[in-house]
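Long-time lurker, first post. I've been practising inverse folding by hand and with some scripts of my own, and I keep getting stuck on stretches where the structure tokens seem ambiguous. Below is the full token string for one chain I'm working on. Before anyone asks, I'm not after the true native sequence, just a reasonable design that respects the backbone. If someone could post their per-position residues I'd love to compare against what I wrote down in my notebook.
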């Protein structure tokens, strides 16, 4: 790139036309999901490579690696490389392999794992020779996976790699549409004078909580754990006063931080961390949203009477100390039509349905309420 650019980060605008062409081809793509050990994953697809000479390839590879290494978590946990060379798209690129081996000696990257997926039986001998010459340090971190697409994806899953995020279609065809869109968004961000790469998070950590909508965000491991925390504190939040509610929300934020998690919001091609005040407001809003959703799902049509009796049939999913097997019990209770059924206390002991007639349970015209299968914790609370 020249000596004038040694004192600053390289941006896409610093690259020549052929460099950008190599970068946009998608030879190397940085996955937006980390593996089970919270390590960043970069995938190499030789068949997508489109570069004029080795120098163009080296510059594009340099940009992708340094972009990933801007994240402190990636510097600490290391980087995983996946090579994908399968099907009719397979291609042996010796120039690229040589360039990567040379760049590894000078770039500040810590490769903690390398996986190479292939389905050509003739390459097995070449893989054996490659493992002999790569040295003991690299050999213990290298795994070759021979088989069809389904078999290799399963093998990658055994190493905790996010196979659902790989840029590969169901029939094994590699793609680069998401990669090109990511580069386009990042180029716009780099042109902003206030853009700071040290505060910009390219790939969220495994325990980070992501603010946003959509299935990928909700299925993020950190979000799943975050919702478990909300479930744990929901009842205490509903019983608390205003100041105590704020303390509970702050406790959730502190718990996420205690496990090295962050609250992130998406900005362009990456994420930025929000402060504790914004995170606490988001947690409080999540508690209120869960309350509204619970109220709308548990409400049932009823007569505008003060009280009515209803029978509820519940199947105990987990045997308690007094029950040796699963059974159905009927509970007679006094229920306010406008109240939450889960907060009503029982007025009589559990008994068999034969001891109470339908007319007695459905007096004053109230409809019979049925509570569907729930967790044992919810049954005990009721």
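-- Answer (accepted) --
I ran through it position by position. Result:
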């Amino acid at each position: 790139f020249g000596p004038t650019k040694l004192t600053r980060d390289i941006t896409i605008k610093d690259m020549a036309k052929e460099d950008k062409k190599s970068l946009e081809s998608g030879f190397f793509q940085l996955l937006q999901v980390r593996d089970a050990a919270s390590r960043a994953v970069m995938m190499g697809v030789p068949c997508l490579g489109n570069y004029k000479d080795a120098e163009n390839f080296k510059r594009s590879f340099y940009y992708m690696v340094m972009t990933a290494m801007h994240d402190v978590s990636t510097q600490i946990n290391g980087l995983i490389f996946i090579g994908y060379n399968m099907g009719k798209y397979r291609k042996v690129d010796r120039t690229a392999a040589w360039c990567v081996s040379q760049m590894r000696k000078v770039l500040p990257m810590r490769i903690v794992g390398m996986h190479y997926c292939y389905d050509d039986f003739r390459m097995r001998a070449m893989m054996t020779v490659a493992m002999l010459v790569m040295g003991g340090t690299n050999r213990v971190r290298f795994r070759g996976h021979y088989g069809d697409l389904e078999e290799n994806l399963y093998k990658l899953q055994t190493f905790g790699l996010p196979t659902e995020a790989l840029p590969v279609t169901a029939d094994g065809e590699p793609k680069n549409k998401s990669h090109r869109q990511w580069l386009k968004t990042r180029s716009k961000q780099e042109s902003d004078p206030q853009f700071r790469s040290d505060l910009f998070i390219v790939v969220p950590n495994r325990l980070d909580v992501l603010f946003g909508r959509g299935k990928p965000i909700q299925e993020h491991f950190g979000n799943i754990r975050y919702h478990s925390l909300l479930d744990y504190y929901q009842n205490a939040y509903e019983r608390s006063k205003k100041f105590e509610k704020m303390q509970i929300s702050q406790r959730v934020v502190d718990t996420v931080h205690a496990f090295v998690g962050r609250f992130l919001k998406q900005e362009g091609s990456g994420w930025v961390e929000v402060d504790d005040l914004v995170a606490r407001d988001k947690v409080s809003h999540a508690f209120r949203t869960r309350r509204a959703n619970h109220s709308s799902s548990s409400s049932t049509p009823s007569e505008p009477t003060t009280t009515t009796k209803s029978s509820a049939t519940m199947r105990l999913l987990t045997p308690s100390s007094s029950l040796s097997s699963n059974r159905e019990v009927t509970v007679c209770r006094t229920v306010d039509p406008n109240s939450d059924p889960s907060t009503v206390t029982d007025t009589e002991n559990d008994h068999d349905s034969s001891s109470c007639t339908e007319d007695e349970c459905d007096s004053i015209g109230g409809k019979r309420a049925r509570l569907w299968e729930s967790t044992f914790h919810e049954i005990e609370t009721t």
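A couple of notes from the structure itself: The two ends are 68 Å apart (CA to CA). The longest helix spans residues 276-298. Happy to go over any region you disagree with.
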